Amino acid sequence: MTDTPQPSAPNAETPSAPVTPPAAEPLPTIVTPSNKEVVIIAEHFKGTLQPVTYELLGIGRDLADKLGGKLSCFLLGFNIKEQAQSLIAAGADEVYLADHPELELYRTLPYKRVITEFIKGWELPPHIVLLGSSTTGRDLAPRVAACLGTGLTADCTELDIGPYEHTNKADPDKLGIYPGCLYAIRPSFGESLKARILGPWNNPQMATARPGTFIPLKPDANRTGVVTDIPINLQGEDFRLSVLEIVHEISKGVDLADAEVIVSGGYGLGSADGFKLMEELAACFKNSGVGASRKVVDVGWIPYQNQIGQTGKTVRPKLYIACGISGAIQHRVGMDKSTTIIAINKDASAPIFKFAHHGIVGDVYQVVPELIAQLKAAQGSCPTVKEPALV
Amino acid sequence: MTTPQNVLVMIKQVPDQSAKAGINPDGTIDRAKAKRMLNPFDRFGLQGALTVKKLTGAKVTAITMGPPPAVEILLEALSQGVDKCILLSDRRLAASDTWATSYALSKVIEYTGPFDLIFCGLQTTDGDTAQVGPEIAERLNLPQVSYCEDFKLEDGKFLARRVMEGGHQWVSMAMPGLVTVANSYHHLEYPSIRGVQKVQRLQRDEEALKALIETVDLDIVKADPKECGLKGSPTIVARTDKVGELGGSCVLHQGETIPTMVRDVMGAASALKEFALA
Asked: pLDDT category, A45, cuts 50, 70, 90?
């Protein structure tokens, strides 16, 4: 086993806090050293930057400005140099470029090596490191965090900067006021909670952010920034995994991220067969796709690729039709930015009716066929579904 | 060339979210009262480990960390065909975040001895982080395949199909290595009657059960208590907020005939007609 860095105790303290608590002994203000930099790890596929990278630059710019620090971005790949300019146009002040044939495709160990060795060489660590919570980001972020010996919060839907007062006497070494903490906010277990997770005792403070949640800046070609080539020292053990092939599945339906209309089914459908009805309704719309809640994915009624919500996709279609979906927070965070939400559910007290725009209390198997019939009557006829449009 | 002989599978007991028991009015969980279950994602990890056993005859050891009732999921694992179990139970582990959890589990793994593959579920339903598996891999300096949805063993390598946005990839991993199994892994089997009966017999034979389920604490696995629990965790949940009731603007149709309700919604939600195929 490798020696892992220990979470370090705060080592810079200023004794007198600016706040004046009433009678109680004042807590010290504790500043964990950092260079105030916010670092993004860019994600690309064969040289095409993924949308989540621009979203991270958007929120990263905001956080860096609040901290008074720099926004930088790692870009690892091969023949990828020209992408550095689009990262700068999208908000980065500096791009750390590692251009190497062995970095062309993402692999956990080489990417982790290049990023962590570079950061470990800094005099002061960055304040924040952010990745997207994609299949790549969720693969890499825990390795980077564990290698740097720091905490990590998964799948955030809000990120902010603020102070934190640690008063838990069960943990006396950490008592104090910490300014400039990363507030990593995510929906939490129990359906109706948002948890604010902090780790100001170590820098960098790390989080992954949900794709589709944060807003990119308008690209500005006049923005200036620095591109810095960084060292690449790959070791033999970094090649214990190789990529044999990559298969892009041409989804028979529309990619849910781009769909204008999404018909989603939940556990209330009762069985996998219910998705045939979802297909049929989706087929009545142009540019449509079928989504699902997590529970039906867990029981295997529909593939993971169709899952919408905290651990699936985040979508913002023009029209979202939720059928037999209760509307738990884990689902809601993935779709509540949809322009129009129509919910169909037997249970009038289902949470989905709290945030849908139009609701019908009734049996999906009665309401949806009627809806299809009325849509057909209004618009001519819907095409019949020949094969499942599931991705 | 490696043929896997020792396979570990990491599993966790989680509160059953579908049961109302143990859900406090403020939305937090009372874990003592909540109904407990095997983390649904771990079924896929367990199945992965048992598939290797089928292919190579490897010995499968299930490892969990949790309070004493966590033995329930180990019994379930035994009924599925796991050969041996280890329960890490220690009050000093309370409030561990993923970093502290991965530390404690990596110490159990070191205590367990040599292994070729470690299987994990992709994530848990109570934490949803998908971090503990990769963090264990980092602590043990292992290669990893996350989001594995299928695999085969070939020429001493672990060939895995891995989920990616918009498709998948096939990768080849040297062993030892760590695998987190996605819920799109479609080879799930349920416990056989024979397996369940075996466990029922075991439950009447304390000695035999003790031989199969070893309970350890931090001292036995030589873990530093300062690295565990609240003290060893670099992150904390600083606060939780009840998510506000959104909108409240839902136009709810109920109690009327289905055609009437559908017609009303068709009239009010212009998007239905706007995006309908002509």
From this structure: confident
- What is the domain range of residue B153? 6-232
Task: Please name the residue of chain A whose CA is at the shortest distance from the CA of residue B250.
Answer: A357
Q: Is the residue at B45 inside a domain? A: yes
Cβ separation A361–B240 shorter than 8 A: no
Q: Which domains does chain A have, with CATH numbers?
A: 13-239 (3.40.50.620), 261-379 (3.40.50.1220)
Give the domain CATH number at B78: 3.40.50.620
Q: What is the ipTM of this complex?
A: 0.88
Query: Cβ separation of A192 and B243 shorter than 8 Å?
Result: yes
- Chain B residues whose CB is inside 8 A of the A244 CB are 159, 169-172
- A262 or A190, higher pLDDT: A262
In a domain, B259, yes or no: no
Put simply, the chain B residues between 179 and 238 with a CB less than 8 A from any chain A CB are 182-184, 186, 188, 227, 230-238
Chain B interface, mutation test: which of A4, A191, A313, most B Cβ atoms within 10 Å? A4
CA distance B216 to chain A (A): 20
- Stronger pLDDT, A300 or A308, i.e. the higher one: A308
In a domain? residue B203: yes
Domain-embedded: residue B185: yes
The DSSP annotation for A91-140 comes to T-SEEEEEE-GGGSS--HHHHHHHHHHHHHTSSS--SEEEEE-STTHHHH
At what angle are helices B40-56 and B71-80 packed, to 10 degrees? 40
User: What CA–CA distance (Å, rounded) separates A176 from A238?
Assistant: 40
